[in-house]
Amino acid sequence: MTIFDVSIGALTGGATELDRYRGSVVLVVNVASRCGMTPQYSALQTLYDTYRDRGLVVLGVPCDQFAGQEPGSAEEIDEFCRVNYGVTFPMTEKVEVNGPGRHPLYTELAGDGEDIRWNFEKFVVAPDGTVAARFSPATRPDDDDLVATIEKLLPPPSHR
Known about the structure:
The chain is of the alpha+beta class. It contains four helices and six strands. It is about 25% helix and about 20% strand. It starts with 6 loop residues before the first strand and ends in a 7-residue tail after the last helix.
C-alpha cells in the first residue's frame, strides 16, 4: 500500500482520490493558518507554480493538533489560503496526523511509530508512492536540498 491507495476528503467537500496523483511527485505538508511558519504557504505556491507542469503536486493537509493553530472551518481555511497566499494547490480536509485518530495518509507517510513534529512537516513522495524524503517543519519549501530532491524525481523539463 502507498499514499495513492488512501482516500481523504477535499477541503471544499467531496473526496480527494490520491490515486489520481500516481506518477506525479507529491509534496505533502501538514499546514496551519495561525502558525509562525504559515508564511511558508507563499513558497509552497511558488514551488507548485514552478514545477506543476513537470508533474509536482503540492498537497496541503490542514491539522489542528499543534497548539490549536488551525481552528477554522473548511470554508475559513480555504478563504484564508486563497486571499492571503493565492493558494491554488490541492488542500485536503482537516485531519489528525498523530495519535489514535491519525489519518491513514500519515500512517503511510510516517509509519506507525513516528510522530509528526509540528506544522509544515514535509514529505516528498516519489511517482511510485514511496516516501523519498522527509523534511522538518523549519525547512523552507525553497530549501536547496528539498528542491533538489523534487527535481531529481521529476522528468527533465521539455524544450519545445
